[in-house]
Amino acid sequence: MSQSNLEKQEAKLKQLNQKIKEEKYKIEQRLGKQVISQANLEYTNLSNDQIKLLAKQFSEFLKEKTVDH
């Protein structure tokens, strides 16, 4: 394979990786917004420590639910 083809494939791979990263970010944002909305939380009242605690509690809740099945 020529150097040019490898460079083109590498550029395509970088673009795909960037798209994947952007999609993951969008999902994380939507999930976070839905959790906050459904829990009737106020953005302005959430500190970083509270966010971390809520994320940990949510994670533990999901782990328990998957074990129950």
Compute the separation of the termini in Å: 50 Å
Shape estimate: elongated
Percent of residues in beta strands?
A: under 5%
Rg, Cα atoms, Å: 19 Å
Mean pLDDT: 90
Provide the succession of SSEs.
HH
Report the strand count. 0
H/I helix tally: 2
Low-pLDDT residue spans:
none
What structural class is derived from the secondary structure elements?
Answer: mainly alpha
Helix content: over 70%
Largest sheet: none
Structure summary:
This protein has helices spanning 3-38, 48-68.
How would you characterize the overall build of this protein?
- By secondary structure, the protein is an all-alpha fold.
- It has two domains: 1-38; 43-69.
- It is 83% helix and 0% strand.
- The chain has two helices and no strands.
- The chain is elongated and about 55 Å long.
- It starts with a helix and ends with a helix.
- The mean pLDDT is 90.
Strand and helix map with partners:
Layout: H1 3-38, H2 48-68
Q: Which features characterize this protein?
A:
69 residues, mainly alpha, 2 domains, 2 helices, 0% strand
